[in-house]
Every structure is written in structure tokens, then in C-alpha cells.
């Protein structure tokens, strides 16, 4: 979509569920099926949606198996390459649930808060206006359905604790919160990624939030 030169810029910072990972297949949904694309098509040419989704991205954890997955470390180059930014949507935390990271829900929330605080610090340092920040807590990760059951052992219980923790952060850091778990479930095929219905729901929800804020 060709947006207006004056379009407000919206960066979507997330993991595979922002990238558009198709459950089981591992390929990518086309733009008009990803929540970011659905979102762009709804809000129209007065807004420009910028996709920054990366498979495996964590909040603030280095992954020894895959380079460049630390969302906190990668934040600065992503933000700086897209300045100015009017809205920043952050949807991270699912990959932190992998049991090899030995992370509890509170630690994941601390990671998210560090990202939000880093955004403010970077904007001040670069002389940029602070974007409105929309924080989206991850959907539940159900290891009982997950084809990576051992990888996400214990994730269901921890993921259910995240909405309250993210809500507390949104109040303290003055972010807009979307509790994804109230509206979206992960795919029945892998228990982790979103199906087309989930992407459509998020696209509509985020559009409504942007148009009303």
C-alpha cells in the first residue's frame, strides 16, 4: 500500500507471531494474512506499518543456539533505522518461556519493562519524540498441544501469569495494553503460533486501538 508522505509511522516489534510464521509448515503468511498486513489495510494510507518481527526473538535474553535473538540488544538499530516513529507495538515474551532459559513469569515481565525503558532512553538520546507504546502480552503457550512439548515444558502455567504482570507494567510505564489472551488462542496444530483467525483478530484489535488513540 502506498501511504501518504505525512503518514504516521507504526513499528511492530515482535517474534515469529509478528513475522507471520505458519504453524507446522514454518513458512510465512502473505502480507494480507499477517496481522500487520491486515492492520495496515484497515487503517489505510494515513498510517505506515513497519514490520520488525523475528523468529525466536526474546525480550532480553541471548540465545546461545541462535545469534541476534535478544530483543533488548537489537532494539537500538531497529528503532534508529525507522525514526521517526509515532507508535511502537511490542509483542514479545513467548520465546522466553522455553524451559532452557529457566525463566519465570516475573523475569519475563522484567525483560519487557527493560525494553520499554530502553525505548524512552533511546528517544531522549537521539532527540526523537517518544512514540505511543502499545504493549501486547503473548497468547497462552500450551505445551500439551505443542509439537515442541519438551522445549516449552511448563509454559502454559507461566504464560497465563503474564497478562497481570504486563498490565502492571503498562500502568507504571504509561503504555496502552492489549491482553491477547482474552481474544486469541494459539494454533491447535502447535500450541505456540497463530493461525489465520488469530492474525485477523489481532489486526482488527490493533487497528481499533490506533484509531482511538
Automatic annotation (TrEMBL):
- Keywords associated with the record: Hydrolase
Which stretches make up the SGNH hydrolase-type esterase domain?
12-200
The UniProt GO MF terms for this protein read: hydrolase activity
**Which Gene3D superfamilies does the record match to this protein?**
SGNH hydrolase
InterPro entries, per this entry? Ester_Hydrolysis_Enzymes (IPR051532), SGNH_hydro (IPR013830), SGNH_hydro_sf (IPR036514)
* The organism's place on the tree of life at top rank: Bacteria
Q: What is this protein called?
A: Acylhydrolase
> What is the source species?
Candidatus Falkowbacteria bacterium CG10_big_fil_rev_8_21_14_0_10_37_14
